[in-house]
Design brief:
Length: about 280
């Protein structure tokens, strides 16, 4: 399987990130520098929010490659949160609008316009931006991705860039299902192959994200025929909803397990737990 780290060569790209992709990806120290400017939460909880956390260390360099060149390009970054990506793009010549359900007030102020809104309905006209990117967002939404995908394509003039976690088994408490991934693969006419060594959370990161997660990277360029259309059958919708329901149940069980473990640790080793940062804030 080719790495897919040069996504602009094809009209569409859909790849599952691998260890070899990570080895080939160029590390971008400037992203960590922006993390430090932002401060919380990237520095307080680096295993979750840092630009070199498990999937971000591949997603962000890949997205930057997919979005380049930046000079004079208008970009909509959907679900930015405290990501360094919109600030990186702005500092390299892009005109960036960043949207999120919660607009953080203490972010750097250097050319990024921030708007408070959320999928699946965005307050922008058709073809409002050259490029629309949505990094590690879709897997966290409570509704099906077909509506969100159509909305992102509606707003983009030239290109849509997405990354998202995928669940490799029911053990994963987050991630799109195999049904959604196969439907997206069919929509863009790409046969998706899984690498022998997919990029997964490291030993330390598994304490937060658990095992059986991989990251998928997607980009599509608008063609003369328009954008790919993603549709689910009734059976597929039922399977996806069942997948999401099981994930919610698994997340609740995992929360309880973590809290029980933390209480036991607090009793046995109060000197360690009192000073330790909360590494499980993502699930609380």
């Amino acid at each position: 399987m080719s790495s897919g780290l040069n996504p602009r060569r094809a009209s569409s790209t859909l790849v599952v990130g691998s260890q070899s992709d990570l080895a080939a990806a160029a590390r971008i120290p400037e992203l960590l520098a922006i993390d430090r400017e932002i401060g919380h939460p990237a520095m307080m909880n680096p295993l979750v929010y840092n630009s070199e956390a498990w999937s971000r260390r591949l997603e962000l360099p890949w997205a930057i490659g997919a979005l380049s060149p930046f000079e004079g390009v208008s970009v909509l970054d959907v679900g930015s949160g405290a990501s360094p990506l919109p600030f990186y793009l702005s500092r390299h010549g892009a005109s960036v609008v960043s949207i999120d359900p919660e607009v953080m007030r203490d972010l750097p102020r250097d050319g990024v316009r921030r708007v408070q809104c959320a999928l699946p309905r965005l307050p922008f006209r058709d073809a409002s931006f050259d490029v629309v990117c949505c990094i590690s967002v879709l897997e966290h939404l409570p509704f099906l991705i077909d509506e969100c995908f159509a909305e992102l394509c509606r707003i983009a003039r030239r290109r849509v860039v997405l990354t998202f976690d995928i669940a490799l088994s029911p053990v994963a408490v987050v991630g799109l299902s195999a049904v959604e991934l196969k439907a997206l693969s069919r929509a863009v006419g790409k046969r998706l192959e899984f690498p022998k060594e997919p990029l997964e959370p490291t030993a330390a990161e598994r304490g937060i994200w658990v095992m059986q997660l991989a990251v998928c990277m997607f980009q599509a360029n608008r063609t003369d025929d328009g954008w790919p259309t993603l549709r689910f059958s009734k059976t597929q919708r039922a399977m996806i909803k069942l997948h999401r329901r099981f994930q919610r149940w698994a997340g609740i069980v995992r929360k309880q397990m973590l809290r029980t473990r933390d209480r036991v640790l607090a009793k046995r080793h109060p000197e360690l737990t009192s000073a330790a940062p909360n590494q499980h804030a993502r699930f609380k």
